[in-house]
Specification:
Layout (H helix, E strand, L loop, with lengths): L2 H14 L4 E17 L2 E19 L2 E7 L4 H16 L32 H18 L3 E20 L4 E19 L2 E11 L7 H14 L9 E7 L1 H11 L5 H5 L20 E3 L22 E5 L2 E2 L6 H6 L9 E2 L8 E2 L4 E3 L6 H6 L3 E9 L1 H4 L6 E12 L2 E14 H6 L1 E4 L4 E2 L4 E3 L2 E9 L2
Parallel strand pairs: 7-14, 13-19
Antiparallel strand pairs: 1-2, 1-4, 2-3, 4-5, 5-6, 7-20, 8-9, 8-13, 9-10, 11-12, 14-15, 15-16, 16-20, 17-20, 18-19
Helix pairs in contact: 1-2, 3-4
Length: about 450
């Protein structure tokens, strides 16, 4: 039985059971991953997962259920389970089943047929080549803790009782390198990740140089004296910070009182130079998609424009509850098993005009933070407060003079957004689709020696 035949059976049973509206989400994904350690395969996996998720409205409440099986017996189970789950729900607002739109944007770039010809043995050979190149980079590279190559391809299908019928397919590959550098009694780690869906984009030298360079450059690191003032956060570090606090831009959390941005649309929340977008149509974006998991057509949203909060991000349910005209389109499931929740797509701070070097040259003396750790324990997503372990560099007279570690940086996300003074032009995304350029921020507390 194929997914469309199963959907027809499932919908008939849902109607007979008394569901007024209903929706099925089918997905199938294939994944491959290999990790090389000391020339040998340390980890190897090849998986195929598939299933169907269902949500329906019955008695004014929404119920969810799922199955990895597509058979008539599975359809009976799904309908019964969803009805039972709906009756025990205590939420007042009913979720919406969407009728769809006349036109959806083209996002052909999210799937590349070329990756289908990327054979498993070639992936293994590439992982070995990455490890070998890392060891050859410098005698200071004591150990390559992992060289990984992974690929993934996923298909998803959404259909509902209002006539919505959508399909999408996407694929990508990822290369990860992690190393340990040593000199005397000192040891430092470094890592780098590359993600794309075109093989021609991968540059093994850049991956190796970045991961190994991070580890080697940190070997001579030491603390700086404590101070409060201007700090440069490199793009990767600020992307990590932005990711932790991105949920504050979710409409549903604001409506529940878990975001200080509630009812702040139209107010200034950041520096004049800060514009933040959520762009599901970004070419080669990690989170690009023609529609969300509720079937809403993707649209670019300017969340913050020149420091002013323009909109939060909404699902159909939270958009219906919001005051005024707002756009849905950020309703996503973690898998066919999950509920629809708010999620970012390609969420980023727009880049500025200055190169990284020009940013550094603007100051006589500045700490550059390249890495932050302890984000889960050291950051409060609701209040915005954070205190994080950091690594980086000290720059003097416009030149990087030495690496820095054993320091913490502390501040408040909402204050930081207002204290951004300059933006670099080096926008970079994490694999979660959160992006930022390097930023110069004032009033950061650094605790060191």
């Amino acid at each position: 039985m194929d997914i469309k035949e199963f959907k027809n059976i499932l919908f008939k049973k849902a109607e007979n059971a008394g569901f007024s509206e209903y929706e099925a989400t089918g997905s199938r994904s294939e994944s491959f991953s290999v990790t090389i350690f000391k020339g040998n395969i340390e980890k190897y996996s090849k998986n195929i997962t598939a299933g169907v998720g269902f949500r329906g409205i019955i008695g004014g409440k929404t119920g969810y259920a799922y199955s990895e099986d597509i058979s008539e017996e599975a359809a009976d189970f799904i309908v019964k389970e969803a009805a039972q789950n709906a009756y025990i729900m205590d939420e007042e607002e009913t979720e919406e089943v969407y009728e769809g739109e006349k036109k959806y944007p083209e996002t052909d770039f999210i799937y590349n047929p070329e990756l289908e010809s990327f054979k498993d043995e070639e992936k293994i050979a590439l992982a070995k080549k990455i490890e070998k190149a890392a060891y050859a980079y410098s005698p200071k590279i004591e150990l390559v803790t992992g060289a990984t190559v992974a690929t993934g391809c996923s298909e998803s299908y959404i259909s509902n009782s209002k006539g919505l019928d959508l399909y999408k397919k996407c694929n990508s590959y990822i290369c990860v390198l992690s190393v340990i550098a040593s000199e005397g009694n000192k040891k430092k780690t470094g890592s780098e990740i590359f993600l794309a869906n075109r093989l021609s984009e991968f540059d093994i030298n850049k991956l190796v140089e970045s991961a190994c360079g991070k580890a080697i450059n940190a070997l001579e690191a030491s603390a700086v004296k404590s101070f409060k003032g201007k700090v440069i956060f490199e793009n990767e570090a600020f992307s990590d910070i932005l990711e932790v606090f991105s949920q504050n831009f979710f409409g549903e959390l604001a409506q529940k009182g878990f975001s200080l941005l509630a009812s702040k649309e139209g107010e200034k929340i950041a520096s004049d130079i800060v514009t933040i977008k959520d762009d599901p149509l970004l070419t080669d974006g990690y989170g690009s998609s023609p529609f969300d998991d509720e079937g809403v057509a993707s649209r670019v949203k300017t969340v913050v424009e020149n420091g002013v909060l323009k909109t939060l991000l909404y699902t159909l349910k939270s958009a219906k509850k919001a005051k005024g005209e707002v756009l849905a389109g950020n309703g996503y499931r973690s898998s066919y098993k999950g509920r629809v929740q708010t999620s970012t797509t390609n969420f980023y701070i727009e880049k500025g005009d200055l190169s990284y070097n020009e940013l550094v040259e603007k100051l006589q003396k500045v700490v550059i933070i390249t890495k932050v750790t302890g984000l889960h324990a050291g950051a409060n997503p609701v209040s915005g407060d954070f205190s994080l372990l950091c690594e980086g560099f000290l720059a003097e007279n416009g030149k990087i003079t030495r690496p820095v570690d054993q320091i913490t940086c502390a501040g408040n996300f909402y204050s930081v957004m207002k204290d951004i003074l300059l933006l670099g032009n080096d926008l970079k995304f994490s694999i979660s689709g959160i992006g930022s350029p390097s930023v110069l921020v004032d009033n950061i507390s650094i605790s060191g020696s």
